[in-house]
Design brief:
The structure is a homodimer.
Chain A: E1 4-6, E2 11-14, H1 22-27, E3 32-36, H2 41-44, H3 47-57, E4 61-65, H4 74-87, E5 91-96, H5 98-110, H6 118-122, E6 133-137, E7 149-154, E8 159-164, E9 172-175, H7 185-203, H8 211-233, H9 238-252, H10 266-277, H11 281-296, H12 302-313, H13 321-338, H14 355-366, E10 370-371, E11 375-376, H15 378-387
Parallel strand pairs in A: 2-9, 3-4, 3-5, 5-6, 6-9
Antiparallel strand pairs in A: 7-8, 10-11
Chain lengths: 389, 389
């Protein structure tokens, strides 16, 4: 187990009756709010109206930034920073899913940087401070409500890049599973897959002695395997939505990587797919992950993959690690299929035309080969893309 | 799943090379330190000398409070508060195990209360603020380094009571598994049992829909079952000590009870044993827990206990919940026995003489019957004590 620092001070207010605490939580940190949201979904479920009412009843000044996209774009953050500057905003409230929160994070940090906020995403500008952020989560997928990460898309440069800073960890997050009842099957499934992928990126590593957190990872994966199908079958099953929502936060807030040497593998490969084709992130992950596992299956990795099959899918081990690992990977593919998502790139309109370019860019944006569960250079990424066609 | 709030902002610095960060972490919160510790163990392992050197090299003023007991006593906290007041102390550094940290918590909160700090423990005085606390952990058992709880013994009133406040959550904790290499077999075993008991107090509940955190609990229990014996066999096994130490924090920092209706059952029963007989807490828990489970085994609880056997001890289920639950309980007893700890009250010198009084006091100190996995009144506690003779 490697040395690590763990510090996650986001206050989580979880459940059906927590929204009432919004004004008092905001007032701990600020008084002039930028309310960030996406399309109309928060209006459809009545949340927008409830939030506005609470802000107005409590005389909290606010301005709005709406229309933040899935795969949030640099331009939205630039717009947000402008509103913040023009209105002396001192608190960012993100209401929505990970995209809205990720955009809010770049606004919060970008406010303190004079030049282009894209420099924060690329790492050229260092984040020294950020405006405080609060979130009201309406989609379980990215875990952005309890972590320091953000992913921003720059359509001009065709880049979708992740960045992070402890300064943009939300001060509080209100998580009501009921807000996710109206999330459609497509986004419910891709959210569950995203959560599982975050977990697997941490979980699949070699002999690091991190037994405890690997058992936590398996528990989290089992939760997704149990409740993903239930949430699709009955979108208003509270326990399903609640377990998925809470799993979502713990998949990526840092606990599951404590003590581990992890280097995320599938996420960087997928980011190129969504940057080029604007596909839903979780769908890209579902297509790539089993092919990545097949590709990296070798004498070093077979045992861990077979344990994954035993501890997550309750497969009986035969003692033949390769056979067991292959069955585990097949089970993962079957599970993704059961969620009704595509399993090939062709199904989402991706052909061979950009595979090589995307493979090169995966490594270029990483700045070096992927050093995770198995080492991957551009040629390996290309092979995984090809397996996924 | 019930509504809940989760907020644990302790910064964890985990690993072999973290002590160097002590001065900078202290300086974030204070400049005049009360250094709290117990007997000579921190001197034996050289930690005392290292800490003093760091404080002096960094010109950090300090006074010492030494001799804090296992089952820390009110008097030590009173002494500590006196030193704090006389020296304008603004930061409490606890170096040791849970007893030292628990005492530090009462000093930190008691400083702001004019009257007897015992009023904080009994709940008569409300904790409005507390001095900041940092810890350097040398024993994995109570989880006090990352939670808001403290247990204090008042020998005059024969009371050992728990209290808690978010104000006394440590600001940081330095956790080096190497510091626990010299913990002897008795305290290693009782620490592991304490960790398991914290987990089980949260885990054993009925149909609450908290699937995710129950899987986390099982992962934590499996970690204790795997590494407890390894740590006894080879006290310098880094991964064993590290996994136990990290499990220790997560057993009781609040995560495993999120969304659950829990009412701790075995801890209040055990606190009477240690208050009357000053036995090691973990040993008392080991004696009581399997008997508690046998006593509460009924048609409602059988399924959960049998799942515990399957998911923690990998027992195959027969389909007969009662039989499976009994096997699970036997397995737990066998595991405790394998750690070399006593399994009856008689072995630790406890006879029938105070059982009735302790049973009455268990409920009296709780203020009502125990409403956990199964309802327990004083007569039930007495039966469990008798089963444990």
């Amino acid at each position: 187990m490697k040395d690590f620092i763990f510090e996650v001070d986001t206050k989580i207010l979880f459940g059906e009756d927590q929204l009432k605490n919004l004004p008092s939580e905001i007032k701990k940190h600020g008084s002039r709010v930028l309310l960030c949201y996406g399309g109309g979904s928060i209006k459809k479920i009545g949340l927008y109206e409830d939030v506005i009412k609470l802000l107005e009843q409590n005389n909290i000044f606010y301005k709005e930034l709406s229309g933040i996209e899935p795969n949030p774009r640099l331009e939205s953050a630039v717009d947000g920073i402008k509103i913040v500057r023009e209105n002396n905003i001192d608190f960012i409230l993100a209401v929505g899913g990970g995209s809205v929160i990720d955009c809010a994070k770049l606004i919060a940090a970008g406010f303190y940087v004079d030049e282009d906020p894209w420099n924060i995403v690329t790492g050229k500008s260092r984040v020294e401070k950020a405006l405080p952020i609060g979130t009201i989560l309406t989609l379980a997928a990215t875990g952005s409500e309890m972590d320091e990460n953000s992913v921003i898309t720059n359509l001009k440069t065709k880049q979708k890049l992740g960045w992070g800073s402890s300064k943009v960890l939300p001060k509080f997050s209100i998580m009501n599973p009921v807000y996710t009842y109206t999330v459609n099957a497509h986004h419910t499934a891709s959210g569950v897959i995203d959560i599982m992928s975050h977990t697997m990126e941490n979980y699949f590593s070699l002999n690091d002695g991190c037994y405890l957190v690997d058992r936590f990872s398996e528990g989290l994966l089992k939760t997704c395997v149990k409740y993903g199908p239930i949430a699709l079958e009955n979108p208003k099953d509270y326990d399903a939505r609640a377990n998925i929502m809470w799993a979502n936060s713990w998949a990526i807030n840092g606990l599951l990587s404590t003590g581990k040497s992890t280097d995320w593998s599938v996420h960087p490969m997928e980011h190129e797919l969504s940057a080029f084709y604007d596909i839903t992130h979780g769908i890209g992950l579902a297509i790539l992950t089993p092919n990545w596992l097949k590709y990296v299956l070798n004498e070093h990795t077979a045992r861990k993959i077979s344990l994954f099959g035993k501890n997550v899918f309750e497969l009986e081990l035969s003692g033949d690690n390769f056979a067991d690992a292959n069955r585990a990977i097949d089970e993962l593919r079957n599970f993704f299929n059961s969620l009704g998502v595509p399993s090939t790139l062709k199904e989402v309109g991706i052909g061979e035309e950009h595979l090589e370019e995307m493979a090169e860019l995966t490594i270029k944006h990483k700045g070096r080969p992927i050093q995770g569960f198995a080492k991957l250079e551009a040629k390996d990424v290309l092979e995984i893309y090809k397996l996924s066609l």
